[in-house]
Amino acid sequence: MVSTIAASGRKVVIVVDFTQVQLFGPEVSEKLLQIMRGDTPHIDRVGFWINDAQPMFNLQLQRMIREAGSPARRAFPRRLALESWLAERLSPPERERLHAFLDERERVFASFAAGAS
Predict the structure, then answer these.
(1) How far apart are CA 31 and CA 62, in angstroms?
(2) With CB atoms 3.0 to 4.6 Å apart as the test, which of 24, 38, 79, 84 could cross-link to 29 if both were Cys?
(3) Who contacts 15 (Cβ-Cβ below 8 Å, separation ≥6)?
(4) Model confidence over 108-117: pLDDT tens digits?
(5) Residue 50 to residue 63: CA distance in whole angstroms
(6) Which residues contact 7 (CB under 8 A, 6 or more apart)?
(7) Domain ranges of the chain
(8) Mapping DSSP to helix (H, G, I), strand (E, B) and coil, where does residue 101 land?
């Protein structure tokens, strides 16, 4: 994926849904941190959507973001804050796609939460 983004020659905005993640194992954590530390001039912003119900994972991800040292990456437990931050860099059609993606993820999350009850 990184090589595809770089080949496009455009800066990209990425949203990552981590609302269902409980914790990364050491290998996954180290690999993601390595990617986050890498030279990524083609990435404008990365917004990680996290779940307040997963405090250990949230701490793990915040540590990784801090260690990567990139202000272009942030974690958000609230959809509105995530959407607002990413939307600053998006065109109107891109904002609509982001909104639709987040709507779909919320439906999936609600369905998952209802099944777990």
Answers:
(1) 15
(2) 24
(3) 46, 47, 49, 82, 86, 98, 101, 102
(4) 888 877 776 5
(5) 14
(6) none
(7) 2-116
(8) helix
